[in-house]
Amino acid sequence: MKKAKVPFISMLCLLFAGFLMAAIPAVNEGYQVGDTARDFKLKNVDGKMVSMSDHKDAKGFILTFTCNTCPYSVAYEDRIIALHNKYAPQGYPVIAINPNDAKASPQDSYADMQKRSKEKKFPFAYLQDESQEITKTYGATRTPHLYVVQKQPDGTFKVAYIGTIDDNSREPDKVQKKYAEAALDELVAGKAVSQPTTKAIGCTIKWREA
To answer: 3-state SS of 123-154?
Structure first.
């Protein structure tokens, strides 16, 4: 019996698919809970460069990848401010990082970040990740995407929680589970985080074109 021949078009499709798979670079999945988080030095809306190591007395940070334009980020702004006001005195301030490329999302420009910070009276640093290197290193994919990191005795920072802030992005009065607060309360009490990961809900990050 003769072997069935693979149609020429099908062969081309298979070859093309293989080429695409080879051409696509491996995706950096970013940090997992328990990983050591990289420090950074990014430009704040006041023009100063900010890093985690600048905060000598901090016990950790609420790192929030957020932006000006995403409806989810806008809906969470007051809750992010509330997180800072509650936990900064306990050693866990917010540091907000805008990961969006300003060319892909013009209203996420540095000037617009300054404007938004002033309008909302952000009590925390609002940094621009212009190169998107830190965003890729951490593995953030959404805005907002929250990482709680805890300072270690050697001065490094360990990831303790990754995910969303709570279970209702659009209606804060209907929130039933405050995931970020629960994690922070446990850290402040010296306990392990019982639910260290949740799914981040928000807009996809606007990446720079290659």
So the answer is: CCEEEECCCCHHHHHHCCCEECEEEEEEECCC
On the CB side of 111, CA atoms within 13 Å amount to 3
- Among 195, 52, 76, 49, residue whose Cα is nearest residue 130: 49
Domains, the chain:
29-204 (3.40.30.10)
CB 108 within 8 A of CB 68: yes
Lookup result for tokens 């509330």: 82
Please write the tens of the pLDDT for every residue from 100-113: 999 999 999 999 99
**Helices vs. strands in the chain: H and E counts, helices first:** 5, 10
Other beta carbons within 10 angstroms of residue 97's beta carbon come to 24
Residues of the chain whose pLDDT is less than 70?
1-28
Strand locations in 66-128 (E): 94-98, 125-128
The residue among 156, 139, 151 whose CA lies nearest residue 61 is 151
The per-residue pLDDT for 44 is 98
